[in-house]
Amino acid sequence: MEKTTDATTSTDLTPNAAAATNRPLVSEPLMLPCGVTVRNRFYKSAMNEALAGRDCAPTEAHVRLYRRWAAGGAGVLVTGNVMVDRTQLGEPGNVAVEDERDLAMLRRWAAAGTEHGAHCWMQINHPGRQSPITINRSPVAPSAGRLEGDYGRFFAEPRELTRPQIHDIVRRFATTADIAKKAGFTGVEIHAAHGYLINQFLSPLDNHRIDEYGGSLENRARFLFEIVEAVRVEVGPGFPIAVKINSSDVPIAVKAPRSADESDKTTPGGFDEDESIWVIKRLSAMGVDLIDVSGGTLEKPVIQTNSGAREDEARGVYFTDFAERLAGTIDTPIALTGGFRNAADMEKALSSGVTQMIGIARPLVVKPSLPNLIMNARWQGTVRLPWITTGVRALDQAFGGILVISWFELQMNRIGRGKSPNPRIGGLRALLFAIRQHGVGTLTPRRRKGHQ
């Protein structure tokens, strides 16, 4: 286990003050709107750990994994998807929390993730229709209708939610958040991105309702706003609530300005940047403590390749154009997630004001102590992620995105068993690992969350 030195928790360091003390900006603490201070600007974004068994319970592997990350120096660790309904899972190996049956292990997980002064926030989610048929033959959604395109055959057609069912899901989010707080997690992140249920309500392509939850943007956002309000009532005013939201549902946003009361227009790309900014401003006014910017859905993922460092070099830091549009329009801190691989890019993003937190995920799997290396050892290198291949071109083409997910899940599994990550492991071994852990159903398409 690497030794770590905690960053200061003083709240009086501005970027200029940090520069004067020759400390990197990423080491600067941040006070959230709720009054809570996080120790630095490293924000470990969510990845599905795939470590839960069929009982959807957290395991000792979660404890070891998050203890390792907490020792690595990040200010905030966000868990992978924790589903609010154990009958509605988004991926194999999801944890689900709908009651207190697993409270003892949740407490162990939270305690490990908050060692050394780290925050550990539980990401809470509902997959909606984005729940593979191999684990759920009866998904739900704002409206009926299969996923489009090649992926459609892997998912059952969902049932349209009734109003009482919508209200029950809102209650479930609040209940899960309350249990997270009781277990010792220091915040929650509501997942409203990546094509899961809340994103489905936001998207005019997915949401065809004609009641108060459909039509205008304000109506489509009602479900999210009700969840945020219910969670805040349950956890109280001094507990951090973050929201992960798409900048848009497509890699390149469709520009179609609209007002909140327009109910007769739809955008070919679904939920777009202008709509996202409107929703984010409302969330800020509601007192949300952090906005985690992301993008894409299962049908339109942000990226789909498995080329690792080459992909990073071609793309750079994600969503910066959107973050620049958002900068200065809200007081709520922003976590910009995706593409950060070196200290220089992190410092540039913080100094420019486009983000207040540096969202990273995959680099913390291959280099768990990256935050401490940058803050304490002043490491100036670049994390180069591997090109993940089976050695068989046809397999790589067939399972490119799944290869990436499975490879990083294998590495997290290694850390969870007390081992070190091993970048030399190939794609074929990762696929075999995934099948062994979760059966052939693991090869069905899943939202690629590992791009950060």
From TrEMBL:
<feature type="domain" description="NADH:flavin oxidoreductase/NADH oxidase N-terminal">
    <location>
        <begin position="36"/>
        <end position="375"/>
    </location>
</feature>
<protein>
    <submittedName>
        <fullName>NADH:flavin oxidoreductase</fullName>
    </submittedName>
</protein>
<feature type="compositionally biased region" description="Low complexity">
    <location>
        <begin position="1"/>
        <end position="14"/>
    </location>
</feature>
<dbReference type="InterPro" id="IPR001155">
    <property type="entry name" value="OxRdtase_FMN_N"/>
</dbReference>
<keyword id="KW-0285">Flavoprotein</keyword>
<dbReference type="Pfam" id="PF00724">
    <property type="entry name" value="Oxidored_FMN"/>
</dbReference>
<keyword id="KW-0560">Oxidoreductase</keyword>
<dbReference type="InterPro" id="IPR051799">
    <property type="entry name" value="NADH_flavin_oxidoreductase"/>
</dbReference>
<dbReference type="InterPro" id="IPR013785">
    <property type="entry name" value="Aldolase_TIM"/>
</dbReference>
<feature type="region of interest" description="Disordered">
    <location>
        <begin position="1"/>
        <end position="21"/>
    </location>
</feature>
